[in-house]
Protein backbone atom coordinates (compact mmCIF):
# COMPACT_ATOMS: atom_id res chain seq x y z
CA UNK A 1 0.00 0.00 0.00
CA UNK A 2 1.30 3.44 -0.90
CA UNK A 3 2.28 5.69 1.99
CA UNK A 4 0.27 8.93 2.30
CA UNK A 5 2.31 11.95 1.21
CA UNK A 6 2.61 14.59 3.93
CA UNK A 7 3.74 18.00 2.74
CA UNK A 8 5.89 19.79 5.35
CA UNK A 9 6.55 23.49 4.80
CA UNK A 10 10.24 24.35 4.64
CA UNK A 11 11.74 27.35 6.40
CA UNK A 12 13.78 29.81 4.34
CA UNK A 13 17.08 31.38 5.32
CA UNK A 14 20.27 32.69 3.78
CA UNK A 15 23.58 30.92 4.13
CA UNK A 16 27.27 31.45 3.50
CA UNK A 17 29.40 34.21 2.03
CA UNK A 18 27.00 34.92 -0.82
CA UNK A 19 23.88 34.81 1.39
CA UNK A 20 22.17 32.37 -0.96
CA UNK A 21 18.56 31.52 -0.15
CA UNK A 22 18.16 28.06 1.38
CA UNK A 23 15.13 25.90 2.15
CA UNK A 24 15.42 23.92 5.38
CA UNK A 25 13.55 21.57 7.71
CA UNK A 26 14.48 19.75 10.91
CA UNK A 27 15.11 16.04 10.43
CA UNK A 28 12.82 15.08 13.33
CA UNK A 29 9.74 16.20 11.38
CA UNK A 30 10.67 13.88 8.51
CA UNK A 31 11.58 10.97 10.79
CA UNK A 32 8.32 11.29 12.75
CA UNK A 33 6.19 11.26 9.59
CA UNK A 34 8.08 8.27 8.22
CA UNK A 35 7.88 6.38 11.54
CA UNK A 36 4.11 6.95 11.57
CA UNK A 37 3.76 5.42 8.09
CA UNK A 38 3.84 8.48 5.87
CA UNK A 39 6.09 9.83 3.14
CA UNK A 40 7.47 13.30 3.83
CA UNK A 41 7.55 15.84 0.99
CA UNK A 42 9.29 19.12 1.80
CA UNK A 43 7.44 22.05 0.23
CA UNK A 44 9.78 24.97 -0.54
CA UNK A 45 8.85 28.57 0.11
CA UNK A 46 7.25 30.20 -2.93
CA UNK A 47 5.08 33.22 -3.76
CA UNK A 48 3.16 31.88 -6.78
CA UNK A 49 -0.36 30.87 -5.73
CA UNK A 50 -0.72 28.46 -8.64
CA UNK A 51 2.45 26.65 -7.54
CA UNK A 52 1.22 26.52 -3.96
CA UNK A 53 -2.09 25.05 -5.11
CA UNK A 54 -0.25 22.43 -7.15
CA UNK A 55 2.01 21.49 -4.22
CA UNK A 56 -1.01 21.06 -1.92
CA UNK A 57 -2.89 19.02 -4.54
CA UNK A 58 -0.01 16.52 -4.72
CA UNK A 59 -0.09 15.93 -0.95
CA UNK A 60 -2.51 13.88 1.12
CA UNK A 61 -2.00 16.03 4.22
CA UNK A 62 -0.11 19.17 5.27
CA UNK A 63 2.07 19.81 8.33
CA UNK A 64 2.97 23.40 9.27
CA UNK A 65 6.12 23.28 11.46
CA UNK A 66 7.74 25.59 14.00
CA UNK A 67 9.78 28.67 13.18
CA UNK A 68 10.11 32.41 13.69
CA UNK A 69 7.43 34.80 14.98
CA UNK A 70 4.31 35.72 13.03
CA UNK A 71 4.26 39.37 11.88
CA UNK A 72 1.73 41.25 14.08
CA UNK A 73 0.55 43.27 11.07
CA UNK A 74 -1.35 40.13 10.06
CA UNK A 75 -3.52 40.35 13.18
CA UNK A 76 -3.83 44.15 13.06
CA UNK A 77 -1.37 45.09 15.80
CA UNK A 78 1.66 47.33 15.93
CA UNK A 79 4.92 45.52 16.57
CA UNK A 80 5.74 45.28 20.28
CA UNK A 81 9.35 45.65 21.38
CA UNK A 82 9.26 42.03 22.60
CA UNK A 83 8.19 40.65 19.23
CA UNK A 84 10.97 38.63 17.62
CA UNK A 85 12.17 38.12 14.07
CA UNK A 86 9.44 37.72 11.45
CA UNK A 87 9.12 37.50 7.67
CA UNK A 88 5.90 38.74 6.08
CA UNK A 89 6.53 36.98 2.77
CA UNK A 90 7.00 33.67 4.56
CA UNK A 91 3.87 34.26 6.66
CA UNK A 92 1.82 34.87 3.51
CA UNK A 93 3.20 31.71 1.91
CA UNK A 94 2.14 29.62 4.89
CA UNK A 95 -1.28 31.27 5.12
CA UNK A 96 -1.86 30.58 1.43
CA UNK A 97 -0.95 26.91 1.96
CA UNK A 98 -3.33 26.74 4.95
CA UNK A 99 -6.24 28.22 2.98
CA UNK A 100 -5.66 25.93 0.00
CA UNK A 101 -5.40 22.89 2.26
CA UNK A 102 -8.79 23.69 3.76
CA UNK A 103 -10.27 24.43 0.32
CA UNK A 104 -9.07 21.04 -0.92
CA UNK A 105 -10.44 19.31 2.18
CA UNK A 106 -7.13 17.81 3.27
CA UNK A 107 -5.87 17.21 6.82
CA UNK A 108 -4.00 20.16 8.33
CA UNK A 109 -1.69 19.79 11.32
CA UNK A 110 0.41 22.48 13.01
CA UNK A 111 3.33 22.51 15.43
CA UNK A 112 4.36 25.53 17.57
CA UNK A 113 4.53 28.43 15.08
CA UNK A 114 2.29 26.23 12.94
CA UNK A 115 -0.47 26.49 15.56
CA UNK A 116 0.00 30.26 15.74
CA UNK A 117 -0.07 30.91 11.99
CA UNK A 118 -3.09 28.61 11.55
CA UNK A 119 -4.92 30.67 14.17
CA UNK A 120 -3.97 33.92 12.38
CA UNK A 121 -5.01 32.44 9.01
CA UNK A 122 -8.48 31.89 10.49
CA UNK A 123 -8.70 35.48 11.73
CA UNK A 124 -7.38 34.93 15.24
CA UNK A 125 -4.81 36.98 17.17
CA UNK A 126 -1.65 36.31 19.18
CA UNK A 127 0.05 37.72 22.24
CA UNK A 128 3.38 38.94 20.90
CA UNK A 129 5.11 37.75 24.07
CA UNK A 130 4.17 35.52 26.99
CA UNK A 131 4.63 38.41 29.43
CA UNK A 132 1.64 40.12 27.77
CA UNK A 133 -0.57 37.04 28.10
CA UNK A 134 -0.74 36.50 31.85
CA UNK A 135 0.80 37.77 35.07
CA UNK A 136 2.82 34.66 35.90
CA UNK A 137 3.34 32.49 32.81
CA UNK A 138 5.20 29.22 33.01
CA UNK A 139 8.65 29.02 31.50
CA UNK A 140 7.72 28.23 27.90
CA UNK A 141 11.24 28.58 26.49
CA UNK A 142 13.04 25.71 28.15
CA UNK A 143 16.78 25.35 28.64
CA UNK A 144 16.62 21.56 28.71
CA UNK A 145 17.29 19.53 25.55
CA UNK A 146 14.51 19.43 22.97
CA UNK A 147 13.24 15.92 23.71
CA UNK A 148 12.84 16.59 27.46
CA UNK A 149 9.33 17.47 28.73
CA UNK A 150 9.24 20.42 31.12
CA UNK A 151 5.60 21.23 31.89
CA UNK A 152 2.16 19.64 31.95
CA UNK A 153 -0.76 20.11 29.59
CA UNK A 154 -4.38 19.10 30.13
CA UNK A 155 -6.59 18.23 27.17
CA UNK A 156 -10.25 19.06 26.60
CA UNK A 157 -12.74 16.25 27.30
CA UNK A 158 -13.76 14.35 24.16
CA UNK A 159 -11.16 16.18 22.06
CA UNK A 160 -8.97 14.53 19.44
CA UNK A 161 -5.97 15.33 21.62
CA UNK A 162 -7.50 13.60 24.63
CA UNK A 163 -8.19 10.53 22.49
CA UNK A 164 -4.61 10.47 21.18
CA UNK A 165 -2.56 11.50 24.21
CA UNK A 166 -4.79 11.26 27.29
CA UNK A 167 -6.25 13.74 29.78
CA UNK A 168 -2.87 15.04 30.91
CA UNK A 169 0.61 14.86 29.43
CA UNK A 170 4.06 16.37 29.80
CA UNK A 171 5.42 18.41 26.90
CA UNK A 172 8.49 20.34 25.81
CA UNK A 173 8.27 24.08 25.15
CA UNK A 174 10.06 26.53 22.84
CA UNK A 175 7.83 29.56 22.20
CA UNK A 176 7.19 33.10 23.38
CA UNK A 177 4.15 33.96 21.24
CA UNK A 178 0.83 32.38 22.18
CA UNK A 179 -2.81 32.44 21.09
CA UNK A 180 -4.89 35.38 22.31
CA UNK A 181 -8.23 35.28 20.44
CA UNK A 182 -9.16 32.11 18.62
CA UNK A 183 -9.80 32.27 14.89
CA UNK A 184 -13.13 31.48 13.22
CA UNK A 185 -14.24 27.90 13.73
CA UNK A 186 -11.36 27.02 16.04
CA UNK A 187 -11.59 25.84 19.64
CA UNK A 188 -9.08 25.27 22.42
CA UNK A 189 -8.24 21.59 22.92
CA UNK A 190 -5.40 21.82 25.46
CA UNK A 191 -4.07 24.24 28.07
CA UNK A 192 -0.89 24.68 30.07
CA UNK A 193 -1.13 25.04 33.85
CA UNK A 194 -0.97 28.84 33.48
CA UNK A 195 -4.14 28.76 31.35
CA UNK A 196 -2.46 29.45 28.00
CA UNK A 197 -3.75 27.54 24.98
CA UNK A 198 -1.55 24.61 23.96
CA UNK A 199 -3.74 22.89 21.36
CA UNK A 200 -6.51 23.72 18.90
CA UNK A 201 -9.08 21.76 16.91
CA UNK A 202 -12.20 22.63 14.93
CA UNK A 203 -15.76 21.35 14.64
CA UNK A 204 -16.08 23.02 11.24
CA UNK A 205 -12.82 21.54 9.89
CA UNK A 206 -12.63 18.17 11.71
CA UNK A 207 -9.29 17.21 10.10
CA UNK A 208 -7.46 20.13 11.71
CA UNK A 209 -5.19 19.72 14.73
CA UNK A 210 -2.36 21.88 16.05
CA UNK A 211 -0.24 21.94 19.21
CA UNK A 212 2.05 24.53 20.78
CA UNK A 213 4.78 22.09 21.81
CA UNK A 214 7.17 20.10 19.58
CA UNK A 215 6.00 16.46 19.37
CA UNK A 216 8.52 15.68 16.60
CA UNK A 217 11.43 15.95 19.05
CA UNK A 218 10.20 12.95 21.04
CA UNK A 219 11.31 10.71 18.15
CA UNK A 220 14.74 10.95 19.81
CA UNK A 221 13.49 9.11 22.91
CA UNK A 222 13.49 5.35 23.42
CA UNK A 223 9.71 5.55 23.74
CA UNK A 224 8.08 8.12 21.48
CA UNK A 225 4.98 9.08 23.47
CA UNK A 226 4.00 11.69 20.85
CA UNK A 227 3.96 9.31 17.88
CA UNK A 228 0.11 9.03 18.02
CA UNK A 229 -0.02 12.69 16.90
CA UNK A 230 1.71 11.77 13.63
CA UNK A 231 -0.13 8.44 13.29
CA UNK A 232 -3.40 10.39 13.36
CA UNK A 233 -2.14 12.72 10.62
CA UNK A 234 -1.29 9.71 8.46
CA UNK A 235 -4.62 8.00 9.19
CA UNK A 236 -6.61 11.08 8.20
CA UNK A 237 -4.53 11.40 5.02
CA UNK A 238 -5.20 7.87 3.74
Quick structural summary:
With 238 residues, the chain is α/β, with parallel strands linked by helices.
Index terms:
9-stranded mixed sheet, 13 strands, alpha/beta, 238 residues, two-stranded antiparallel sheet, 24% strand, 6 helices, Rossmann fold, single chain
Give an account of the 3D structure:
This protein has 238 residues and is α/β, with parallel strands linked by helices. It has a single domain (5-237), classed as 3-Layer(aba) Sandwich (Rossmann fold), CATH 3.40.50.880. Helices cover 25% and strands 24% of the residues. Strands 4-1-5-6-13-12-11-8-9 form a nine-stranded mixed β-sheet, with helices on both faces. A two-stranded antiparallel ribbon has the order 2-3. α2 packs across α3 and α3 (88-103) crosses α4 (113-121).
